[in-house]
Amino acid sequence: MKTIKKLLSNDAVFVAIVSSVLSLLVGAVIILLLGKNPLTAYVNLLQGSGLLPKGKYGGGQSMLTDFVSFVDAWTPMIFAALSFAVAMKAGLFNIGISGQMLAAGFISTVFIGYSGLNAFAAKPLVILTGIVVGALAGSVIGWLKYRFNINEVVSSIMINYIFVFVVSFFINTRYLDHVSRRSREVSAASRLTLHQFEIGGYRYDIPLGFGLALLAAVAVGFLFNRTVLGYEIKAVGLNRVSAEYSGINSKRTIFVAMALSGALAGLSGVTYYLGRYASIGPRVLPQTGFNSIAVSILGNNAPFGILFSSFFIEIIGKGSAYMSSRSGLDTEIASIITALILLSSACSAYYLSLRESFRSRRKADG
Amino acid sequence: MDKIIIDGMSFTLPLFIMAIGGICCERSGITNLAVEGLSGMGAFAGALAAYIAVKQLGLGYAQAHVAALLFSMVGGMLLAMVHALMCIRFKANQVVSGVVINLLSQALTIFLVKTINSTVFGRPSDQIDLEVSTRFTVPGISSIPVIGAFFRNVYPFEVFIILVSVVVWYLLYRTGFGLHLRASGDNPHALDAAGVNVSVVRFKACVLSGALCGIGGICFAYSISAQFSSDYYVGYGYLAIAALIFGNWNFMPTLAACLIFGFSRSLGYQAVQWAQLPSAWSDLIMILPYAMTLLLLVFFSKTNHAPRALGVIYDKSER
Amino acid sequence: MMNDMTGEEIIVEMRGITKKFPGIVANDDVSISIKKGEIFAILGENGAGKSTLMSILYGMYEPDSGEIFIRGKKETISSPNYASSLNIGMVHQHFMLVSDYTIAENIILGTEPGAKALGFIPFVDMKRAEREVKELSEEYGLSVDPGMIISEAPVSVRQRVEILKMLYRKAEILIFDEPTAVLTPQEIESLLNIIKNLRDGGKTVILITHKLDEIKKVADRCAILQRGRLMGVLDVPSTDTSTMVKLMVGREMDLAVEKGPFTPGKEVLKVEDLTVKNSDGVTLVNDVSFTVHSGEIFAIAGVSGNGQTEIADAVAGLLKASSGRITLNGVDITGSSIRKRVETGLSYVPEDRHNVGMILDLELRDALIIRKYYLPPFQNNGILNRAEAETYADRLIEDYDIRCSRGGETVTRSMSGGNQQKAIIAREIDMDRELAVFVQPTRGLDVGAINHIHRQIVRERDRGKAILLISLELDEVMALADTIGVIYSGRMEKIAGADKLSPHDVGEYMMGVGKK
User: What ipTM is given for this predicted complex?
Assistant: First the structure.
C-alpha cells in the first residue's frame, strides 16, 4: 500500500494512471451505449494480446504465440516513442516520425529486402540502413530548424507527405505486388521478425528487434542521466537562450538530437516494415508514428515510462482484432479509446493542479 | 488550359476556407493543427445530412446541398469545441491536442459511417454517397478568353466560400469581436486588463474555426469524389496550415498560397495527361505543393511573424 | 511645493490589509486613507509590499483580511474589471498593450464605440475613436498620434497610452506602479508634470516608487512600507529625506563597502570602437571604447535602455558586434564563440537571471556545473561524473551561503530570487576568470543580499580581477566603482576616475547634458 501511495505521489505516474482510467471509463460508456459488455471487450483485448488465455486456439497457436505476436507489434512502438522523447527533450516536436519510419523502411526494403543477401549479412544491414536513413531524414528537419528557422512541426509534416508520395510513386511504378496492392514482400532472410517460426509444434512470429528496443530504452535513459550529450540536449530543450549563454552550441545540439531521434524512428521503421510486416502500402503513413507522440507523453518522455505506456497502448491496438471478432465491435472502437487516452494525457497540467487544490483544501480542513 | 483553371479553383477555394479557419483560431492565440480533423468531421456531418435529406426525406438537390453546408459547420464546430476545451479549460499542450483530435476524428468518422450505414440504412459500407454537385456557368463573362474559365463550370459552393470569407474578413478586421480576437493572440494580458474575457474570445474563435474547416471538408467531398469516406481528405488540413503560415496569418497572402497549391496541382495533373504518363505519376504531382511550401519557407521564414501569444497557455497569474 | 488640495474628502480607505504568499507576508495589517485630489506616494524598497497593496486595490489579488472603502462605501474588489467600474485605473510596470494595434485601437480595446452600417451591420467606429483619443490627449497635455502602431512607439509614448487608457475609461483614482523605471530623465520630468496636471484636473493619483527625489518633487503625502508593514504616513513638504530613508530601510542606508586601495594592473579587457545594431538595423551601441584593468571595477552608469546591457552581451558573445574590436587577455575575441570567450577568461552574471542566467528547471547541482560539465573531472569520455557534481554543489552551497531546501537536488525554480542570484554569482566567481562582468547584480534583492553581493564583487577586485559592472542604480555605481563610464543613447559620454565625479556630474552625463 505504501509503495502504491509513493508511486502515485510521482506526478508522471499519477497523470498516466488518471488519464488511462478516465479514458477506459469513457470507452466503457461508449461500448455500453452500443449495447455490448465493456468488461468482456476489455478482456478480449487482453486475450488478443496473449495476456489472458482465449477459450480455444487454432492449430499451432497458443497464448504464448499471441503474446509473441504482441511483442512483435510492440517493438516498433517502443522505438518510435523513444524517438519522440529524444526530440522532445531538446524542445523539438518531431511529428515526422511516420515519414522517417517510411523512408527507412523503404530504402531498406529496396536495397536489402530485395537483394537476396543471406540472413547473417542482411539482418544487420537492414538495421544499419534503418539507423542511417532515419538519422538523415531526422537531421534534415534539425537543419531546416537551425539554418532557416523553419518550425519543425511544419517542416516535418511537409516532409512526411513528400516521403509518402515519393515512396508511393516508386512502389506503383516498380515494386508493386498486383495481388496485394502493396510492395512486393521482402526476403525472409532480411526480415527482423522470424515469421511463423516453429518451436514444439507452435508457430511464432519472433521479433528479433525486441531486445534491441529494450537496449535502446536503457541507452536513452543513460544518455539523459549520465552523459555530456544528454546534459546538453536537456539544457537546450529547457531553455535555449540560457544554454547558449552557458556556452553550449545549441544549433549543433539540435542537429544531433534530431539525428538521434531520426535514427530511432528509422529503427522503428525497419522493425515495422521489415519485421512486423514485410511490405509497404502505397500512400499510407504508419499510424504508429503519430500514436507514438502521445505514447511518449503518456510515459512522461522517460524511457521506462515509455515501456509501460507503449505496452498499454499496444494492448488496445493489437487486441482490437480479436475483440472485434468476438464481440462484433468495430476495430475503430480501439482507435477511439486510444485517441481518448492520448487526449486525456495531454491534460496533465490540469490533473496536477486539481490534485494540488484538493490537497490544499484537505490541509485547510485540518 | 480551361481545365487547369476550373480544377485549380475548385481545389483552391476549399483549401482557402480551411486556412481561414486556421487563421481565426491561431490569431486568437490557439495553435490549430486540428484543421484536418475538423474538416473531416464537418464533411462527415454534412454528407450525412445530405444523404438523409435526399434518401430519407426526399428533398431536392438544392435543399440537400444547403443541408450539407449547414451541418458541415455544425460537425466542425462540435469537434472544435473539444479542441477549445482541451486548450482553454484543461490547459493541454495545443500541438498534442491538435494531432490527437486528427486521430480521433479519423477513427470516429470511420466508426460512425460504418455503424450508421449498417444499423440505420442497413447497407454495410464505409462511405456515404453524395449526389454529384451541379455546376453553373455565368453567361457573358465566361466567354472571355482565358479569364472566362473562372466563370465556367463553377460549383455553387465556390461562390458560398467567397461570400463566407468576405464576411469572416469583415468580422476579424472591422468589428469589436475581431479586435478582441486579434488582441487575444498578440497580448492576452492587455485584453484581460481591458476587461474582456480571454477564454471566451478564444473559445468563440476556435468554434468559428471549426465551422469554416467543416465547410472546407464538405466542399472537398463534393469536388473530389462526390462521396464521403474518411481517407479522401488526408493531408489537405496540413496543407491549409502550410498555406496560412506561408501567408503570414493574413488573408490575401494565404489566398495566394492556396492558389499556388491549387494551380500547381491541376497543372501537374494536366501535364501528366498531356504527356500520356501512367497514373502513378500523379503521386509525383502530389509532392509539388508540399515541396513548394518547404522551399518557400526556406526563403521567407525569416520574415515570418506568428501571432505573439500563439500556443502560449493563458494564465492570468503570470504577468 | 504647493499643497492646494480642494477638500478633505477621503476617496480610498484600506483598513487592516493583510496578504500572505507562501513563505512571505507581503502586507501585514496595513491601513491607509487617501484624500480626493491628492498625489499619494507609496514608498518602499523592492519587496516591501507596495505593488501587492495596490494590486489588492486594483482587484488583482484578494486580501487575506482587511476591508476596502471607496468613497465611503465598503467594496469587495474581486477583479480589475470591477475596479474599473469604481473608476480606479492602473498603469502597470509592464505595459499591457497590443503591439500590432494602433494607439487608438489600444485605448478603446474592451470599450469600443460601436456603430451600425446600413442600420444593422455592426462595426467599430474608428473615426470616432481617433477623434475622442485626440481630444482626450489634448485635454491633459499627453500628445500622441492615434494612428501610430504601438510596436513603433517609444516607451514614453506607450506609457502615455496606458494613461490615456485609464482616462478613456473615466478613471478618477489613478495608480502608477514604478512609472519612471523605464524613462530617461527628461521623460521623467515630463511624466511628473503630467501627473501634476492630472491632480490639478481633479484626479487622485497613487504613485508607487522607491525613488525619493520623485516623491519630493510631486507627492503631497507618502506612506512608507518596510517588509510588508506600514512604517508611517508623512506629509511630504514638511519632512526631510533622511527621515524617509530611515523609515524605508530601517536604518541609515549605507551602501559604502570597505575597499582596498586602487592599484590597477595589466589591461584585461579592451573594447575598441564597438558598435552593436539590432535585427532592424537600429544602432544600440555607438562607437564605444574603454579598457578594464586587473584590480579595477569599471562601472557603466546610465538610464535603462541606453545600450549598456548590449555592451555586456557583446563582450560575452550573446550579441554580435556590428563593428569594432574586443580584446580579452590580449586575445581578439570579437568573433569568438561564447565558450571560447569563457575559456579565454570571462565570467558573466547577466541581467535576466530567470531566463538567461540559470535554467530554472534544472536541479541546483546540474545548474551549477553548466559552465564546467564538459571538463574533467566532471566528465570522462563523455560520461558525467555524478559524485563530482554532488561534491562541487555542496562546496558552493557552503562557501557562498546559498539557501536551498534539499541541497544539490533542489529545483532552482523553487529557490528565492536572492538565492538564485547567489548561485549564479557563485558559479561565475568560482570559475576564477580574469574578467567578471556583472549586469544589475542586485536588482530586486533585499539589503542583506545586496551587501553580501557587493562584498563579493569588491573581494574579487581586491584579488586582482578586472570587473565590468553595469548598473542602473547610481548609488551602487558610486559605492563600488574605481572608474565610471557614463552611457547615453548608445554613446559613452564620459569616462573618468570615480574620485573625479560627483553623483551630480554622473547624473548630468546620464541625461546627455554633461559638459564634454
Answer: 0.86
